[in-house]
Amino acid sequence: MSKKNTTRPDGLAYSTNKEFFNDFPEEESRETLPKEKQKLRVKLDTKQRAGKVVTLVDGFSGTNDDLEALGKQLKTKCGAGGSAKDGFIIIQGDYREKVVAWLKDWGYVLTK
Asked: Is residue 14 situated within a structural domain?
């Protein structure tokens, strides 16, 4: 039984020409909401983390670059590691009260 390449009708699966695969829709660029309209929620989470506690910031609406920039600021202020992906900012450790206070100081007034 032979496998047939079903990626494209002409059998081409890879090309270095960026113009060649123009049949895929481009990603929509989301605008970042102003700080006053962001509804951020800060909570503790231990699910699927082997019992380790992380501070989770949820509800950010905007571009990934702005999400990563805010995550970097929070990680620097906490002095802890973490990541920013899929609309979440994850900070290692229990920094819930500090994160809420910093976000409110920075203009995110709808933070809980």
From this structure: no
- Element of type H or E holding 81: none
Inside any domain, residue 4: no
Q: What is the pLDDT of residues 1-32, one digit of tens each?
A: 555 545 555 666 666 776 766 665 555 556 88
Residue 88 lies in a domain: yes
CA-derived radius of gyration, the chain: 20
Strand order in 82-85's β-sheet?
Answer: 41-45, 54-58, 88-92, 82-85
Strands (E), 20-69: 41-45, 54-58
Q: What is the DSSP letter of 56?
A: E
Burial class (CB in 10 A: 0-12, 13-18, 19+), 60: buried
Q: Where in the sequence is the domain holding 98, given as residue range(s)? A: 38-105
